[in-house]
Amino acid sequence: MEAGSVGTDVSADHVIAELLEMGFEFDEISEAIGVVGPCRADVVEFMLNGSGGEQRKPSVGSQRRCPDRSARLANPRGKFKQSSITDHIASATGSKTVSRGGEVSTSYSCLSASIDPEATAAVCSKSKPEPQSLLENSRGEFDRTGKISAVLQKHFGFSCVKGFQKEALDAWFARKDCLVLAATGSGKSLCFQIPALLTTKIVVVISPLISLMHDQCLKLAKHGISACFLGSGQPDSRVEGKAMAGNYKIVYVCPETILRLMEPLKKLAEKPGIALFAIDEVHCVSKWGHDFRPDYRRLSVLRENFCSSKLKFLEHDIPLMALTATATLHVREDILKSLKMSEHTVVVLTSFFRPNLRFTVKHSKTSASSYGQDFQELIGTYNASRNFRGKGQKILHEVEPESESSSYDSLDDSASDDEEEVPDIKINKLAKSLVKENTEHELDQYPGVDDFDVSCGEFLESSRPEIFAPPVPSHETSSSESFDQGPTIVYVPTRKGTVELANYLCKSGLKAAAYNAKMPRAHLRQVHEQFHCNALEVVVATIAFGMGIDKSNVRRIIHYGLPQSLEAYYQEAGRAGRDGKLSDCTLYCNFVRTPTLLPNKRSDEQTRAAYRMLRDCFHYALNTSTCRAKILVKYFGEELGLEGCQMCDVCINGPPQMHDFKEEAAVFINVLQSQTGQATEGMNYNSTDCYRSGRRNFGEVPDFRTAVSYIREKLPRFVMTDKIWWQGLARILEDMGYIQEAAEIPRVIIQHPEPTRAGLNFLSSQPNEEGLHAYPDAATLLAMTNPKSLSSSAEWGRGWADPEIRRQRLAGKTGRRKRKRGSRKQPMGFTTAKERLSAILSKSKRRR
Ligand SMILES: Nc1ncnc2c1ncn2[C@@H]1O[C@H](COP(=O)(O)OP(=O)(O)OP(=O)(O)O)[C@@H](O)[C@H]1O
Ligand SMILES: [Mg+2]
């Protein structure tokens, strides 16, 4: 709770609006205001603790009872009253603390204003005495609350820690291992930075990216805290030596390096001591996560080596604190196990919901030919705000008309290297040389590229720490003024895409730069710097740019192409709106193109998991009926309540009309049933009886394409239907549990669907069933509304009805697809691909 940051001077109306937004009931608020007056902190305090002692918490689901909701919905962009992360996470959302033993507690805390010192003491009293160093500056009298408030205020300018930060700090005080799961931008870094300020010991932080370590060290130095980072490149013995001698309060180390530094770290643990090992972005530990880094997995050495049973000088094990914003339940379990975290690990879990992020999905070809349509609005926005700002941007307009000179591929080599030139010209000049190196559709597979040209660095505390001004309450800025400003990050899948799109945006007058792992490190570093000092409007990047980046005013995250997982998507989207103000996260996805996995070495098990993640992501994009924020947090195991976010495209537009898929579903399942030779009790659906003569008649295995081709051939009313439409139906039936994938490794689109028992029951009972009503997904809607065929298979289907064409095609003479020589896939047919399919057959036989 930000006590005092919103003072008593704001009107009662404002306080009421804010607290309604947070989810409190109107009656409660007005009762509290009647007692304590119109101060938000006092009102919350009263509602949580004051009236009858009963704690009440706002439920996320009830967050949207604000009376002005309809006005906001009508004009969400203009007069939207922006909610802030600080409001929702610091004050409103209690964090759940769960020990691995199962103990759960919920807390609402503001150390400086409303915390109950006895409650805090209760946590301490269960633990051993405080470390000596914690007592040093307080004349033997330990005042944890006051001390935390003091360092927080002194170094960071914040008045209080958030609930989940306090939980994590409590775990550290109790010397317990701790897993912190909190939304992007919620402030996880403070959980491990504050301990460094409360003891004479050192905090060691394991972090996956040099750029991330660099940014954090730079900020810490500005806040008067000495720090250094040790990357994986050429070691600098001077910085490393100083770090291992305890000269910096916080030492950031990449996982590869920490494994090399085990012996020096043991000495450091002896003197001056290691207060904590923090493992940031800990989802990188898990093979089931989206950013698996094998070296993260070896970090179990920390628990194994830095315990009192191994190091006799230690009075207790050095606590581990693992932190992430994107870990599913499966990944969380894997983290605890892989890092060998203690049985008593405290799990601090807060909401993953980001109330100020507005999610939208749009259909697009996501190719260079669609830039014009898709980026028109973005270009217009920046150019309009530049014109509005007038003079300040003149220098850029002078450059832009020579449009060649502002694009990557057409800069003049002879341009002077004058130091005084404007930054975006410098970036473009540098980038020009990169174009040739980025012409392939290569992919950046891991965000974990060491994207800086330095492998270590030291950051001494500045003598006059810079105190960041506390965030400006959102009602004090006009949303229409602030929304359009602030930078944009566009994520594209390929390196070539970064250069092409950045080039296009530059030509359209924007200050844009490309960023991918193949570019020279000097360029990457420059883009980082330009981005952070607001010299760039748009960074077009692969996944190499993202994790942990903490720039407060990013207003838009655009994904131009489907990410590989919802974890990656939410992680990247989490770069937006870290100041708590309304920000847009737009995903452009080609609904009719089947997404594919990035080339990568994977075991079968990992491939299966990777396809599952990609499928979940595709289904998110195709969804037309469930709030997007709801799907996203559900993915991380959280329920958002019935109302949803009320901001995403689905909440705003509402679901499409339901469609009765009964007839088509019966036909489809019946054909599949015949393919697999499954018997159905009492099947009497006349229109499809003709397919029941056994699968040998038209296919040897359940096969989606064969089934659809067969339906189009046999039932004239379906001859014009598109494959995309049937894929949509298959998704619905799979969701309902009527069909399942028979292949060992399910892909994004079902390939070998076989009816389940429930599907067969539907088939036998369906003449009496009322209907099979479902929302068509986005691809199905396209197929229903688009008069043109979406997939080339529609044409294939049309021709298929002609016996002669069919004969020719089966003979491979006029095959629709001419496969490259050496291509692994076999042409579709009824007697081919035996090896590949026999595995499926035997699996489906086993199941039966
Ligand atoms: N108690 C607090 N009060 C106000 N602001 C805070 C507080 N704690 C952290 N912040 C601010 O929140 C912002 C985000 O913090 P941080 O980078 O630690 O987020 P994060 O949770 O690590 O996000 P990510 O998962 O994206 O890395 C920072 O700019 C920080 O200053
Ligand atoms: Mg972080």
From TrEMBL:
Residues 9-50 form the UBA domain. Gene3D superfamilies: P-loop containing nucleotide triphosphate hydrolases (3.40.50.300), Winged helix-like DNA-binding domain superfamily/Winged helix DNA-binding domain (1.10.10.10). Its main location: nucleus. One of its GO terms (molecular function) is hydrolase activity. Residues 808-824 have a biased composition (Basic residues). Residues 474-637 form the Helicase C-terminal domain. Residues 50-79, 398-422, 806-848 are annotated as: Disordered. One of its GO terms (biological process) is double-strand break repair via homologous recombination. Belongs to the helicase family. RecQ subfamily. This is ATP-dependent DNA helicase.
